[in-house]
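Q&A log
Question type: sequence-to-structure
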Amino acid sequence: MKTPISEPFLNGKEFYEIKKIIKLNQISSYGAIIPKFEKKISKITKIKNAVSCSSGTAALHVALKVVGVKSQDEVIVPTITFIATINSVHYLNAKPVFMDCDDYFNIDPLKTIEFIEKKTHFKNGFSYNKKTKKRISAIIPVHVWGNASNILGLAKLCKKRNIKIVEDCTEALGTFYKNKNSVGSIGDIGCFSFNGNKIITTGNGGLLITKKKSYANYAKYLISQATDNGENFLHNQIGYNYRFSGLNAAFGLGQLQKFDFYLKKKQQIHNMYLNNFKDSKIFSILKSPDYSVNNHWLNILLFKPRYKKKVIKKFKEKNLQVKNVWKPNHLQKPFLNCEKYKLSNFSKFYSGSICLPSSVSLSSKKIKNICKIILSCEE
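Response status: OK
Response body:
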């Protein structure tokens, strides 16, 4: 059996919670189980308003609409992220403006600040791109691999320039800044994913958090087909069937009962990888930023690009799943004509890294074997 990059870890509590919800006949999008799950995430993130939905992508789509992104607007995004981040911008007929990554794969805060200060102007309460004349209504920083993005300074500028921040936290549940603030709490809305490969899973599903009750209410409204009067089927806006199910919520409640254990195990796996490559002159593990406590969702192997084919070949021979870093989105066919700003750092990461198996179920013996296989490529 192939060793996967990140597989679900079932602890047995999920089945107990699902049995309970089936007995109550609350398996759809109604009942008490969904609010209970939302409150659990609120407790973890310390953000009062949480709204669940069908996926992390749905959360991003709805969040952008809630903060006011309109057709023909522009949204600042990182080029290194899963394509769902960028697709959510296009769902609203807006355009992405691509930014480079920093040394943690996250959006480069200094280049982004420079772009806003030098390439945009502020007029009538909004920021406009000097080149395209389009309104820049939002930015989506992504907390890649579970590492918190360094956006505290950027957030101050965005507030001054009325650029809304939608944080893509789909990989980062359990990641906090050193000031104790959770990812997703710095901007206007934070979006999470509970896909099967995430640190906790509900099978599929997503959730958004926000400090603003009005944002949460509008998100719930949109997610439920924008229903103004259910009895008379009255809908005054275009809504979406993005509702979360009771079954998903029950599964998630079971997962959350072992959440602290998952975080601890992810830290142990990260430390083992760091230790095994500490003496290598060719291979290293991407370290986490010291301004945050990170969930270590995935571990990234770094190397010079010439070693990539050799490492991938070894992985395939040993039946280990190989996952490349995402192809930079500004190079994807649908986005070739979109604006990009000073992209350079992304290249070394795209060509000189792969994702390592990081499942909670990984044994220390398996990790040592994986490291041994990689280190054999030095020969």
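Response note: The mean pLDDT is 95.
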